[in-house]
Amino acid sequence: ATDLVKTFTVKTSPFAPPRQLRAVDGVTLRVAPGETLGIAGESGCGKSTLGKLLLGLLPPDGGTISYNGQALTAGSRRERLTLRKNLQMIFQDPFSSLNPRMRVGDIIGEPLIIHQLVPKTALRDQVLQLMGKVGLLPEHLHRYPHEFSGGQRQRIGIARALAASPQLIVADEPVSALDLSIQAQIINLLQELKREFGLAYIFIAHDLSVVRHMSDRVAIMYLGKIVETGEREAIFSNFRHPYTEALLSAIPRIGGAADGRRIILQGDPPTPLNPPPGCPFHPRCPYAEQICSTIVPQLTEKGHGHLAACHFSEKLYSRG
Ligand code: SF4
Ligand code: MG
């Protein structure tokens, strides 16, 4: 995906004129086959909008998305359908994303029918096999979503996403609505499925310890922009952006900078309605200087595909 932009028009009050909200602002990223890219940031940073853009569930206002070199929006209807089959999504709330009037077997079987992947006679067996892969039982076939716990509903959502044999799954906060013990089960299931099917994931979450557990590479988002990205360990052990430092210092076990300093996030949480000029993080950044409120820092290479967008990255994070 290159230079993605998505703007929404919102009305904040019946008397105010509508305003433009730039949810995703010039994001470029790529995911290799079999790789997990974690996307992290506070709520409202544009992570979910980005996920939907990547799958073609929302049209971008600018930028391009391509898959194996083919633009997602180009080609015939049939070609686009084939492309879509390879890209699936798992949602945060598996209840609202599952049709309450459909039985589990029909929910999981639907993509198989849409993409004509199995003959009718083999449909039931294929659905049962998918249910087995995600830890559901054959007797669940004829039940409805509301008869299941949150964790089991997420298993149904995963089986449905798997049904079309995708190559990439976008998982948007797939465990954040679940109890802690159930979170671990679902995370482990996703890891097993990745190994078994060679899946690539875009794993969207605000919980950095979950992102660290799942990801090969990580992108940190703030107000619709990627402010830092790189290999997992580069981000967690050798971060080059104050916002990443702030997010990490909120997790005691991972800790802040090597010298033990900690950034506590202060000020208002970000809202894309009134994005600040210059560096989007400057109103909350403890290291901000004058230039930060006027000039937007660009993502620049820190080595081995590690990029950060901060005017003072070198000064702040040079550790000999
Ligand atoms: Fe902070 Fe300035 Fe760097 Fe932005 S550019 S993160 S405000 S030091
Ligand atoms: Mg979200």
Automatic annotation (TrEMBL):
<dbReference type="InterPro" id="IPR050319">
    <property type="entry name" value="ABC_transp_ATP-bind"/>
</dbReference>
<dbReference type="InterPro" id="IPR017871">
    <property type="entry name" value="ABC_transporter-like_CS"/>
</dbReference>
<dbReference type="InterPro" id="IPR013563">
    <property type="entry name" value="Oligopep_ABC_C"/>
</dbReference>
<dbReference type="GO" id="GO:0005524">
    <property type="term" value="F:ATP binding"/>
</dbReference>
<dbReference type="InterPro" id="IPR027417">
    <property type="entry name" value="P-loop_NTPase"/>
</dbReference>
<keyword id="KW-0813">Transport</keyword>
<protein>
    <submittedName>
        <fullName>Peptide ABC transporter ATP-binding protein</fullName>
    </submittedName>
</protein>
<dbReference type="InterPro" id="IPR003439">
    <property type="entry name" value="ABC_transporter-like_ATP-bd"/>
</dbReference>
<dbReference type="Pfam" id="PF08352">
    <property type="entry name" value="oligo_HPY"/>
</dbReference>
<keyword id="KW-0067">ATP-binding</keyword>
<comment type="similarity">
    <text>Belongs to the ABC transporter superfamily.</text>
</comment>
<keyword id="KW-0547">Nucleotide-binding</keyword>
<feature type="domain" description="ABC transporter">
    <location>
        <begin position="1"/>
        <end position="248"/>
    </location>
</feature>
<dbReference type="Pfam" id="PF00005">
    <property type="entry name" value="ABC_tran"/>
</dbReference>
<dbReference type="InterPro" id="IPR003593">
    <property type="entry name" value="AAA+_ATPase"/>
</dbReference>
